[in-house]
Amino acid sequence: MSSKPTTLFDKVWDAHVVRDIQDGPDVFLIDRHFIHEVTSPVAFLGLKNRNVSVMFPERTFATADHNTPTINQHLPVQDPLSANQLKALEENTSKHGISHWGLGNPKNGIVHVVGPENGITLPGMTIVCGDSHTSTHGAFGCIAFGIGTSEVEMVLASQCIMQPKPKKMRINVSGEMHKGVTAKDVVLYIISKLTAAGATGYFVEYAGSVFESMSMEGRMTVCNMSIEMGARGGMIAPDETTFNYIKGREKAPTGQAWDDALAYWKTLKTDEGATFDIEYHYDGAEIEPMITYGTNPGMGMGITELIPSAEDIDAGKASFAKSLQYMGFHEKEPMIGKQIDYVFIGSCTNGRIEDFRAFASIVKGRKKADNVTAWVVPGSHVVEAQIREEGIYDILIEAGFELRQPGCSACLAMNDDKIPAGKYAVSTSNRNFEGRQGPGARTLLASPLVAAAAAVTGKVTDPRTLIA
Amino acid sequence: MAYDKFTVLKSTAVPLPIENVDTDQIIPARFLKATKREGFGDNLFRDWRYNGDDTPKADFVLNNSIYSGKILVGGKNFGSGSSREHAAWAIYDYGFRCVVSSFFADIFKNNSMNIGILPVQVSDAFLHKIFSAIEANPNAELEVNLPEQTITILATGESESFDINGYKKHNLVNGFDDIDYLQAMREEIVAFAQKSRY
Question: Hey, where are the domains in chain A?
């Protein structure tokens, strides 16, 4: 065995290369394949047209999330097109013998929440899904990334995709974070430094004390948004925090298999002296609560700063102006104090129990502002149950909030949860693109703490002023 | 899904000089509800192309009849965001066969090649020259030569070469797709997968 220092990424990647095509991509084995109702139907249609079966149905898991309502889930889905997609997923998975946690199933929820929650996601795996936020699973030391529908078909047919090996980037954040600063702020800070395209062509490893001291929920938030700077994915070396999270989950190994797995998982880290194509270093103490002011996730700033001017930005001036015009903002003005209309907490970025704990920590003893419509959407039924068990539900109700049912909801506005045109939403989701949360909607991406502060004050507010 | 072979494409082009065109703009999520790959071109750039009442927005390039062609020329970082292949389907269904930009998002680039759209990455300077040529004459033609890996502004003769890996080039020129290739190595994959840890 070679003693050459190797990165975590190379260890996992190289173990999955079935064939290295000369002057072409690698034929890359996929350990776990998640599918959902929106990007899978045409893939199944392709299999049918080719008369090909699913190669390893037990390695694919289905859940419905993108297109599902977040109220009255016990009733038939009203929109006929959405109902048709859900039915197609049910039929396709049943026909091919694939596990399916559809609407109403107690295990249903957002794909990137339920995968880890049930121990399907394990260190060292390769994981894909027809959804760009598949990068979330990198929090467990996985190579996980989003794919298109042709590739979904490929994985169903062959358990492989054709993938050129990306370059390697390491992002180190050391030091300690201040109170009121969360994993979401860390990743929004990184993206604001690197821009929305700054990591395109790379796979990222996040390293340093800030990530080492982060919970699995926080690590998932960080890895989730890797795609927002263009990266194929992002990963964090598994450690005791990871192992403790996995242990006892339904599909996690047990007994001797657990011991064997653990021994392997402990080898999954970047060796001393291994090299990356590019590295960045940041100081966690420099990061303050973040908020976005523009129409891509790279357009973020510390909440107490001023919106930059086009001169400060290394990007097209016309695109920058178009972005601010869409948002109804101006250069060099503060974000603090801006009136908002909607608050959305949820999504695969911030729809886990820790996020609702953070939200409740500010909401407790306060009231929702009258000018704010708030959508509080758990990432899964399991998260929903935790919200109730921990008393967070009572805090929300007391403060004038309602709790909705699990799903992607207003993150991408495929279902009825759309922000109306022109309205401002402080959202814990991952994209502030034009119309992402509904045609004409204006999104301010932020952490659950910033969302809570906005929800109770009705405007953009520094959450640190509300933390005891 | 079978697609047209791509060799040499000579066409006028539609300019979209905006940076960071994300796939939510190319096709908004509310149009992703189909279970078949049909009709996505109708909703290409839906919210830039139409008003809320479905009337066309006069100032959007697809509504300006002086611009047409099989080549779409976009600003830097084209196709970022969501992995929805529907974005590539919409571009193909509308009639484009080639997208030119100075930088592409990874997933969009893969999706495009998988369905027979050629993404051509050029330098910032050459992209600027293309936009200038189209601005000077909306009928200016570009020639994209995949076997030679060149793109040429025919009016001026200015040309640049572009990268593509040999495997993908071979697929596009012959109309092959990855699943054909993977099916041919089925036994090798099964043997590998059965030995794998997970």
Answer: 9-164, 167-239+269-286, 290-465
List, for residues A74-122, the tens digit of each pLDDT value.
999 999 999 999 999 999 999 999 999 999 999 999 999 999 999 999 9
Residue range A9-164, CATH number: 3.30.499.10
> Consecutive 10-residue runs of chain A (468 residues): their mean pLDDT?
86 98 96 98 97 97 96 94 96 98 97 98 98 98 98 98 96 97 98 96 98 98 98 98 98 98 98 98 98 97 96 79 96 98 98 98 98 98 98 98 97 94 98 97 98 98 94
Say if the Cβ atoms of B52 and A15 lie within 8 Å: no
**What number is the ipTM of this complex?**
0.96
Residue B33 and residue A81: Cβ atoms within 8 Å?
Answer: yes
Q: Which of B88, B165, B179 minimises the CB distance to A157? A: B179
CATH code that applies to domain B8-195: 3.20.19.10
B192: nearest CB among A18, A131, A434: A18
Contact A198, A229 (CB under 8 A): yes
pLDDT of residue A317: 81
Domain at A290-465: CATH code: 3.30.499.10
Q: Measured between alpha carbons, how far is B36 from A153 in angstroms, rounded to an integer?
A: 14
Domain boundaries, chain B: 8-195
Q: How many CB atoms within 10 Å of residue A437?
A: 29
Max CA distance (Å), chain B? 61
Mean pLDDT over residues B139-154, rounded? 98
In this complex, which of B75, B88, B106 lies closest to A201 when CB atoms are compared?
B106
Measured on CA atoms in the order B2, B8, B12, B17, is the torsion positive or negative?
A: positive
Inform me whether the C-beta atom of residue B157 falls under 8 Å from chain A C-beta atoms: no
- List B residues 3-62 in contact with A (Cβ-Cβ < 8 A): 17-20, 22, 24-25, 28-30, 32-37, 47, 52
Closest Cα in chain A to B31: A414
Within A236-332, residue ranges assigned H as helices are: 240-246, 255-265, 317-327
Structural contact between residues A54 and A47, judged by C-beta atoms closer than 8 angstroms:
yes
Topology alike, domains A9-164 and A290-465 = yes
CATH code for the part of the protein at A167-239+269-286: 3.40.1060.10
pTM of the model: 0.97
